[in-house]
Amino acid sequence: MSAAQNHRCAICGAHGDPADDNRLHIDHDHDSGLVRGLLCGLCNRGIGALRHDPETLRSAMQYLADTDTSGGESNLGRLS
Question: Among 30, 66, 24, which Cα is nearest to 50's?
């Protein structure tokens, strides 16, 4: 499976390397038990924190798009 994914996370593309403690984790559907793919630790924890729910993930994506501060501005000010 790792070779099929080019030894990379199926979400972010991070390279999985057990030698530097950056192993890929087996992601599975908690209802069916079926394996979906391999994910880096951050992506695996991220989708777990959002309860593996596609609608919650879409909502998080929309939130990030709607609150993009890459232009240096925020509707709420600056955290100091």
Answer: 30
Helix or strand holding residue 38 (H, E): strand 35-39
Q: How many CB atoms lie within 10 A of CB 43?
A: 20
pTM given for the model: 0.80
4-38, pLDDT tens digit by residue?
999 999 999 999 876 766 799 999 998 999 999 99
Contact residues for 60 (Cβ-Cβ < 8 A; gap 6+): 50
Phi and psi dihedrals of 60, rounded to 5? -65, -40
What integer pLDDT is reported at residue 17 of this predicted model? 77
User: Rounded CA gap, 2 and 36, in Å?
Assistant: 12
